[in-house]
Amino acid sequence: MEVNFAPELQSKLNELAAKSGKPADELVQDAVAGYIDELAELRSMLDSRYEDIKSGRVQPIDGEEAFRRLREISAERRNA
């Protein structure tokens, strides 16, 4: 696979590679591997939350209600 970066990003990558002593392709592979791991973890968490709602273990709340609660908590903290 070949990846082309904008010149500014390529320059930053080359600079980081020079400073770290690691080849640029290794830095990119490490970054992509970390990103994919984070995506997989997020996907797993979202699937778990969806299953909690679907099974009835957790009841969703209305978006307006959630914002109302957040505003209430914020007001309480400001007044404390």
Please supply descriptive tags for the structure shown above.
3 helices, mainly alpha, elongated, 80 residues
What does this structure look like?
It is a single chain. With 80 residues, the protein is an all-alpha fold. The chain has one domain (7-79). It has helices spanning 7-20, 24-55, 63-79. The termini are far apart. The model has no long low-confidence stretch (mean pLDDT 95).
Task: Map the helices and strands.
Layout: H1 7-20, H2 24-55, H3 63-79
One letter per element, helices H and strands E, the order comes to HHH
**Largest beta-sheet details:** none
Q: What share of residues is helical?
A: over 70%
Task: Supply the helix-strand structural class.
Answer: mainly alpha
Quick summary:
This protein is mainly alpha-helical. The chain has helices at about 5-20, 25-55, 65-80.
